[in-house]
Hints:
Elements: H1 2-24, H2 31-35, E1 37-43, E2 48-54, E3 60-62, E4 65-66, E5 69-74, E6 78-83, E7 88-94, E8 97-103, E9 108-111, E10 113-114
Antiparallel strand pairs: 1-2, 1-10, 2-3, 3-4, 5-6, 6-7, 7-8, 8-9
Amino acid sequence: MKRKGLISLGQTLFSNVINFNKKSKQPQVSLPLIYAGSWQFIDELSNRTHCLEITTDLRILIDHRELTCQVQMLTSKELIFLDGYGYHLRIDAIDGKPISVYDEADNRVYELSENLDSDGCL
């Protein structure tokens, strides 16, 4: 009897651990949604603030003008576009949030900050 009770208790505890692990997993966010939004960055050479917008269907706009480009790679850490001139534009993300954009044409990295303007761009 004792042995049967311990086996039953062990099975219950094992089942609870499995169910706990299933419940504790975070829901997966669709990769395009990590990057979708509006950010701003400062070009220190021209001392201008620019707006970067990425749509949920991964179109990219800078200062309200859409860039002609194709998505080359999409992961939870980076989104890479290839423009019509053969240059890459890479958006880096940490913890599901874009933090910087690398422009291969200028060979520069720009730090992104959330755009708080109500219309989405300055």
